[in-house]
Structure formats: C-alpha cells, structure tokens
Amino acid sequence: MTGMFNLSEEEKERAKHLHKESIVVDTLAGGPTVFSQDMLKRLDELIEKNASTPTILDEMDRMSAQEIVEGRLKEYKEWWEASGVDVISATLGAFGEPPFTYENALRDIALWTRKFDSLDWLVKTTGIKDIEQTKEKGRRSVILNFQNTTHIGTDLDKLDFFYNLGVRIIQLTYNTRNFVGDGCTERTDAGLSDFGIQVVKRMNELGILIDLSHCGHKTTMDAIEISTEPVAFTHAFCRKLHEHDRGKTDEELKALAEKGGYCGIVVVPFFIAKENPLLDHFLDHLEHAIEIMGIDKVGVGTDWGAVYPEPLLARLNEEVKRIGFREEHNVDWRAVTKGFKDWKDWPNITYGLVSRGYSDQEIKGILGGNFLKCFREVVG
C-alpha cells in the first residue's frame, strides 16, 4: 500500500529504516488475532449450538493460547513480525458474562501468563527497562491494561493486587457509568465520584498510568486536574474532525498536553471518518492532535487490525451494545480502513508519516518515543 502515498524509492527505504530502528509502540492493541482451522471448526459448532458470544470468545481465546504455545498457530508470530511492532498494550477481561469483571481479568491474565511462560520472544513488561532490553534482544513486549475499573469493584486494595500481577495501565471508565465516574456514551456526565478520586490517587501512588480514552468529558477533565502524574488517552481521535461521543475535544487534548500526557490515535474506521475511511484520515487526526498538543505528546494506539471470521462478526456487532455503544455510534466490525486492513499493515503508518513530511526524530517519537517518555515518568 506504499503507492497510496506516492513515495520515492529513497523515501520508502527511509520509512523501512525508521520502522526497524524505532521502538514501535501500539498503545492499544492485543497483537495478532488469527484463527486456525480447528478454531474455525469449533466456532461453527458453538454458533450451531447458539452459545452466547462471551462463551464463544472465551473458547476462542483459550484455543488460541493453546495453539500459540504449542507452536501450531505459526501465523501469530508471522503477523507480529510483519507488523514491526515492538510493544503492545493488551486489554484484559473486557468480554464475559457479564463484561469487565474481576473473574474475567484473572482469566485473561492467566492466558497471557501462559504465553509469557512458553514463548521466549514474548515478554511481559512492567517498566521502561523491560522494553529497552527486550528491543535489544529482538523480542516483543506486552503491557497489560484494563479498559475499566469495574474489575476492582469498590475495593482499592485490588488495585495493589492487579499491580502486583503486572497491570500498568488502567482506564477509569468504559463508555458507561461505574463507581469511579461516567463514560463517554453515558446519558449524563457527572465526572469523578469520591471513590473515583481515591482511585486516581492510589493509581498515582502505585505507578499505574491512568487512561481516559472512553471517559466522559467531565470525568476526563476531573482526572486530568486531580492526578499528580501525567495521564493518557491511549486510543482516541479528534472530535473536531469527526463528531462522535468517543472523540476527544480540543479542550481535552489541550488539558492533557498541559499535564504532560500522551494521546494515541486510533485507526478504527468508524471513528476516524463518517464514510470511506482511509489511512489518510488517521493521519489527519494525528496532525490535528499534534497541532493542539505538540509533536512530542502524540502517538499511535490503533485499537484495530483483528480479522474475525464472518460468523463471529454479527455477534460482535451485537455484543458491543452491551458495553455502551448505541446505533448512532456506527460500530461495525466489518468496516475497513483502506491502507490498514489488518495488523500486518502497521508499516503503512510509517510510510504515511514520511509522506506527511515529518523528520526522523519526530517519526521516532510518534512511533513510540512519545509514549515511552510518559510511561517512564509514571510507571518507571
């Protein structure tokens, strides 16, 4: 897809070099999502039995981990190598019955732990030194994250528990209201609760990066103000360019920058454009965020790139309604961003950055350096 940017051969080689030499970070991605023939057969069986979507997703995750650690799902590593991504931030415990529970979180931590224990090239990272050393050894790093605080209920001590298990990024709310505050698709937006303020302070003390990507406006502004540490929008887009509940306003982007925070821009098709989404739309959102925040505070959190079998797509479109998306939000797992069909297309982002005229230093920052600066300051 390099042709979509009309790069010269010299520019293409420059992009390839930058992508290889940079520490490339996707601040919201679970890595490759691939399905073996055995997984597809099992999927058909579960759908025929009318199993619930959480049950299906749970079984697919279990089978995927099994096949990965046994070396039977070779596409997993191949996709990762094709992406050129060195570090991901993987979400734990999102889907389940109900979603975002303590039990779901433990289930996913267990699955990731099995991969870390079995694969010599995949490393759980709990700090900046892990990331730097892993890059030097040609391995891949995974930062564990939550996209909700419902995993802890109203027990602050569970933050310590999950920190000890390696979780280093936690989003305060996911779309709807919880004990901490209001999400971006909630009917009202009252901001942080008293308990939410306690959560922010404890996360600051522990060294957990606060994520506000799915938070409502008031909750977002409250957290930025109350936190004593920089905070992040790990996967967001600019509401100025696409009016959508999930987008971040210029006011929010400016406040985030003043706090020394970080914003990762998504490649999600229905978030970056109303129709005919292109990788150029992603670059437009990136540029707007840079205009508001500065070149040293913006990066990439794709939140996209999995390729799901057709029988699962309709189920997923229904499932997201349970976690706060409504019809007007146009969430569609069948949608495609031209230039980023799947996670293997990650290098196209670097080609796009070269096409927009950024310097080598600026591109290295966008590809990962800007996030790592924030991560180092908060997590250590």
Walk me through this protein's architecture:
There is one protein chain. By secondary structure, the protein is of the alpha/beta class. The chain has one domain (2-378): TIM Barrel. It has 15 helices and 9 strands. It has helices at 9-21, 37-48, 53-69, 75-83, 102-118, 128-136, 157-164, 194-206, 217-226, 250-258, 269-272, 279-293, 310-319, 347-355, 360-378; strands spanning 25-26, 87-91, 122-124, 140-146, 167-171, 209-211, 232-236, 262-265, 298-300. The strands form 2 sheets. Strands 1, 2, 3, 4, 5 and 6 form a 6-stranded parallel beta sheet that branches. A 3-stranded parallel beta sheet has the order 7-8-9. Helix 6 (128-136) links the parallel strand 3 (122-124) and strand 4 (140-146). Helix 3 runs parallel beside helix 5.
CATH topology: TIM Barrel
Would you state the CATH class?
Answer: Alpha Beta
Cα Rg: 19 Å
* C-alpha end-to-end distance: 37 Å
Helical coverage, percent range: 40-55%
Quickly count the helices: 15
Main β sheet profile: 6 strands, parallel
Number of domains as seen in the coordinates: 1
Bulk shape: globular
CATH level-two architecture: Alpha-Beta Barrel
Count the E strands.
9
- The CATH homologous superfamily: Metal-dependent hydrolases
Structural class: alpha/beta
N-to-C SSE string, H for helix and E for strand: HEHHHEHEHEHEHEHEHEHHEHHH
Mean pLDDT: 97
Low-confidence stretches: none
Strand content: 5-15%
